[in-house]
Amino acid sequence: MRIRRSLALALLVVCAFVAPVASQTGTEDEGSEISIVLDGTARSRLRLAVPDPAGLEKLSPEARRAAEEMVDVLRRDLEASGVFIVQGPDQLAVLDLTGDPLTDYLLYESLGNKLLLDADVIEEPGRLVLEGRVFNLASASSVLGKRYRGGFELARRIAHTFADEIVFYFTGRRGVSLTSIAFHSDRGKSGNREIYLMDYDGFNQRAITAHETLSMSPDWSPGSDFIAYVSYLGGAPGLHQVELRSGRKSAILTEGDFNISPAFSPDGKAIAFSRSVGGGNTEVFVCNRDGSNLRRLTNSRGIDTNPAWSPTGREIAFTSNRSGTPQIYVMSAEGSDLRRATSLGRYNDGAAWSPDGTKLAHSARRQDNNFDIAITDLVTLETRYLTESAPGSHESPSYSPDGKKLAYAANLTSRSGTTTQIFTMDLDGGGRRQLTRYGNNFAPSWSGYPKQ
Amino acid sequence: MNRRMSTGWVWTAALVLLAGLAACGPKKEPPPAPMMEMEKEEAPAEEVTPAPTPSPVGDETPAILDGDLMAIQERITRMGLMGDVYFDFDKYELRMDARERLRKNADFMKEYSTLVFGLEGHCDERGTNEYNLALGERRANAAKDYLLSLGVGASSIRTISYGEERPFCTTHDEACWQQNRRGHFVVTGRTDR
User: Fold this and answer.
1) Which of A49, A99, A103, B126 sits in a 20 to 30 Å window from A450, CA-based?
2) CA atoms within 13 A on the CB side of A433
């Protein structure tokens, strides 16, 4: 199944072309219009019109469904990127478009748009061709043009790829539309938990384990080709891994009664985890990738658990109750230079490093014993709470690889009861998007960028 | 006068008893023997039958081990022979009621020393999932350590933490949360077969 998928991807022909209009336009002109500081606030976002593509009505029903999905995903990706405010057909319906490009550019601009994404969709037997161009409306020039070709089933993938190209053009950083999120879910057989994967927008959810026991706490390898996780296979919680391409699973460390919370080092050579030593005392350890060469990093009578590597691999954050309540500490990857990172509140756990290494996102218990997602600055030690206004509990934050978003698990109460679901949000707590709906879903882990 | 003296004696006895209880905390250090003697002293010596098996459990002896593990488990559950122990919010220290329960469990485990028990540590949903795994491990081991201090063989117990992943109760209130903060015993094997 996976192999067929890769073959299909290989067929996805991506060819950029330089639009004739763009080649005639001076680069200075584009630059002056578009060089805006993008900090993700609404004020700095670029308004981008994305009307429906021309030629939809000429497509076969199947192609049309795929094309419509493609453009819909493109709009969502661009909006979710935090770079653009997208105007779709609903907002653009007020315009009396003429068909003459220059006149229409003025009309798009009249709604505040700086940019226009003009897409054409052409059907070939069994596949679609998407030609997309981004126009700078002020200069009436094409700044980016791309053509993608692929089977109908690749509509989402094509949209994600194009969206990331557009984000890269305007920000110089890769978009995250092609990334994935691992998590665990009890949606299958009652009481069991399996490891699942989904696209960053919640689509394409599928189980990647079928151990029929508790399997949880997934963590991506740096190349996004393996996932380490905890499973109670054989009775006791141990460290296991699955290679995503082949689906092959193997044990990393099952010796001992209690090995949990695996975290790949950024160079992929080591795994930090926690392990019970004499009398249920959980301590943080590091082992080689194959489970050998165990080194103990912490030594306290309290609980030490849930390690997370800094992006440089030089430090490890973890949770310890050595002071009496669970708090997050940072130490060197050798276990030295211990310092406490969280001081506000009686319970902080689940540290995740921001990709730039300056902050820790974590769960922070509030007065009503629910948890907020918080971000603690490692320099100022100031803590900011992102979900205070939301009811219920929020846990297990995980940064997107561009550091612009967090995935997390939160309670959702409806008429049928309270469940735990996975969401993503922006770093200001806005832009919340629910990704899962079935069963309870926990412990999201956001992948790195896929290999190019 | 006489009354005051006897009150004083009772207090002294109570203190000795408390000291004995404290000494039998989770640490393995103190020998279990004094604890058991204290317990027995509470009952009038003459009324205890000379047979080494305590009467309520002893009467059931032939039946307890009949059948497969599932049948044994069912019987133990029905008769309340290996009751759960409960913990305070965020805590893994053994409460007095937990120690009392564990003393009864220890008597049963020593009586039926061929049975092997899984000792599950559970937590309520109000911690984080990852931290609760470690908390459940700590709870199970606190109970295990106390059982060992009472003379239960180490090979009779295997601890396992489920954190908050296998709750007994799924409503969101204190009654339910207390149910979920528990050490729970399950028969997992026997060494005589």
Assistant:
1) A49
2) 18
